[in-house]
Please model this.
Amino acid sequence: MRLGLLLTAQHPADRDATRAVDEDLALVRAARDAGFDAVLVSQHFLASPYAMLQPVPLLGRLAAEAGAMRLGTGVLLLALLNPVEAAEQAATLDVLAGGRLVLGVGLGYRHAERVAFGVPARAGRVLVAKVGIVRRLLAGEEVTARGPGYALERARLTVRPLQRPHPPIWMAANTDAGVVRAARHGDAWLVNPHARVSDLERQVALYRSVRGGSAELLPVTREVCLAPTDEEALALVRPHLVGKYAAYVAWGQGGALPAGDRLDRAWDDLRADRFVVGSPETAVRELRALRDRLGATDLLARVTWPGFPLAHALRTIRLLAEEVAPAL
Model:
């Protein structure tokens, strides 16, 4: 199982933006020096109550620090974006990353974002159409297509990515319909950080049945906080994850989960079967379950949340590399 870093780039709204960038850079340098394989950066717009840096310009800065790590979007909310701009940005990022870009894309679920970008409420078909256009543009094809907010007439990119025919496209999915969409239209399914492992077992079987065999690549994102003892890790992370998931509930994330799940739960119920929080020994046990029960090939660990102390996030990266990875 390869280790990667999921960088949310969310900070308290009153945090100095320059300091926020410095902290994100410190996390990437630590992951690079620890031998992590990849760093992916998330995207939201109008992210109140948090301030959130946008992934494309941030990844351009991170490319100078990432060493041999892959860089990626985790995810770009492609359903909201113009596919020409998304393709041009991806091609540029792949050049900056030395041909190591992963293009993670997703539907998004927030009403405020869809209204701001004029995207229909039921946007699954919009996402599929845009993924197809971006894929063809990155592969150097000439594209004619029309849809909400775009009209292409024999469009062709003049900046091509280094990876041919194009960087891998990982498609995020929460619901069963999204999993089917990822199986049909993505190069891999990027598993979200807040799904229960018990739900994911069923969805992985669905994904593989639609895809027509075992998935060679299954990147899984998780909330991860490690400390010498379970008790210390739980006490440290609880207020930050409770606040983060209260924001998810307010944003409507609960409506995008698998049937029967919800995020408005008491802490012990919320974290069970969902987060990797505890000692290195606990993390080894839980990550082995992800590998053995799901076939996870990559762990993308989110190790910090708005207001979380940087020193503790850096400790989690170190413990993952030194005490957890060797056991996996």
Notes: The two ends are 7 Å apart (CA to CA). The domain at 2-327 is CATH 3.20.20.30 (TIM Barrel). The chain is about 45% helix and 20% strand.
